[in-house]
Design a protein that fits this description.
alpha/beta
């Protein structure tokens, strides 16, 4: 079909396409609903919840998975978690929370479930073209329809980042995306590669089932306990924002009081300051390192049979190598150029809007310590207000159009984040939320 040659204005009679019914997708659905904007949701699984629905084949949670942030810093403000839910909810609690959220606001009725989006492409020229969506439902024939705009909310933690190793391993070589139960470790010599939050959680799981557990660590980490003075660590701290250098200094000293120096367990010392990479919220891994249940190994040099050779010249035999090496941003249904993809991630205004289009938005492409689901909800509120202002022909939309075409704002909060793929869309929570709220307020 030949694309139109004239710009297509936003068409309020057509619905907006919303891809995904995980936490970010539900936040977008709720805000589009509140704004009175018609939308059609697409969800590849048969229900809501995204990765927190363990029955979803694309879910990467495991039986022991819990939030690493506490419930009151994570929940949607307009829909608090039930009082009986623990400080750090399990994946079962989280799935029920998103089920309840969808039920309470009547969001399921807006979705096609079992609908996998195959292609998203603009039809016509200009900043607000129609968007042609191609999808299949439950393995049926391809279907096609045009929409007034698109909100992409298919998540950031589903496509595994599996490293390439020199050599061949004759045991099991897996990514944590397939890990569900500690039964996997029964009687095996296990090497977990990567000491991020998932790697440390899973290494602790393995302790109770495996013959031996080692943790291959490339760089140092800051380990934060879940409780400080008997309260969730992320609920403490003053309301005054300290300069980055002072916060780093004070918090690293306080952390030493509770965790000591992890280097005494063989972990490398971080070659960066606190908050320049995502901290590990786990003190149990230090407990097990201190008891000799887990041993630290350096980075892998090569694999040979069942033997793993490490970069310090040592070697050891394993039955299972489990890579806790994170995830890649994955938007397979849309051309990367349309998302202004540069380097390791799309370059989007406020991590939401590509400069080229006014009716295309990405939800949830943010990582920040403590940003919670409310941070995503505020993204959705901004998207809904921007789309609505355009649909109504309001001049309020023009300021955001100019802003997203101009130089990007500094969302780092003064912190110098590590140049890693998983940090490519990292932001400072307060700086980011203030910027998103201000942009949304200007559209109110």
């Amino acid at each position: 079909m030949t694309p139109e040659t004239t710009p297509t204005p936003p068409d309020a009679r057509r619905p907006i396409a919303l891809i995904g019914a995980g936490p970010s997708g539900l936040a977008a659905a709720r805000n589009l609903q509140k704004a009175g904007l018609a939308f059609q949701g697409f969800e590849a699984h048969t229900d809501v919840g995204g990765l927190w629905n363990i029955d979803n084949p694309r879910s990467t949670v495991y039986e022991s998975a819990h939030l690493i942030s506490s419930k009151h810093t994570t929940e949607f403000t307009e829909f608090p978690m039930r009082p009986e839910v623990a400080d750090y909810p399990s994946h079962r609690d989280m799935r029920q929370y998103f089920f309840d959220f969808a039920d309470h606001f009547g969001l399921r009725q807006h979705y096609r479930f079992g609908a996998r989006v195959l292609k998203v492409e603009p039809v016509g020229e200009g900043a607000a073209p129609l968007w042609r969506i191609t999808w299949t439902e439950r393995g049926g024939p391809e279907q096609v329809a045009d929409f007034a705009g698109v909100v992409i909310a298919n998540g950031t933690l589903a496509e595994p980042n599996l490293p390439r190793f020199e050599g061949q391993f004759d045991g099991e070589l897996l990514h944590t995306s397939v890990y569900k139960s500690a039964e996997l470790f029964k009687g095996k010599r296990v090497l977990v590669v990567g000491a991020g939050n998932s790697g440390c959680d899973i290494a602790v799981d393995a302790v109770h089932h495996a013959r031996s557990v080692d943790l291959s660590v490339r760089r140092g980490y800051y380990f934060v306990p879940k409780y400080v003075f008997g309260k969730p660590a992320d609920t403490l701290g003053g309301k005054f924002q300290l300069p980055p250098w002072l916060k780093q200094k004070i918090d690293s000293v306080v952390l030493q009081w509770f965790t000591g120096d992890p280097a005494r367990f063989g972990l490398p010392r971080p070659e960066y300051k606190m908050y320049e990479s995502h901290p590990v919220v786990n003190s149990l891994v230090l407990h097990h390192l201190g008891h000799g249940d887990i041993h630290v190994k350096p980075d892998i040099a090569r694999l040979q049979g069942h033997t793993v050779h490490f970069k310090d010249g040592s070697a050891q035999d394993y039955d299972l190598v489990l890579c806790a090496t994170g995830y890649q941003l994955h938007y397979p249904f849309i051309d990367r150029a349309l998302l202004n993809w540069q380097g390791m991630a799309p370059q989007l205004y406020l991590n939401i809007f590509p400069p080229r289009f006014d009716n295309l938005a990405v939800m949830g492409m943010i990582e920040a310590s403590g940003i919670g689901w409310q941070g995503r909800y505020e993204q959705a509120e901004l998207i809904a207000r921007f789309f609505k202002a355009q649909a109504e022909g309001s001049p309020r939309a023009e300021a955001l159009r100019r802003a997203k075409a101009g130089p990007p704002p500094d969302l780092s909060g003064g912190f110098k984040y590590l140049k890693l793929e998983r940090m490519a869309y990292y932001v400072h929570k307060d700086t980011y939320r203030n910027a998103v709220r201000a942009a949304a307020a200007a559209l109110a």
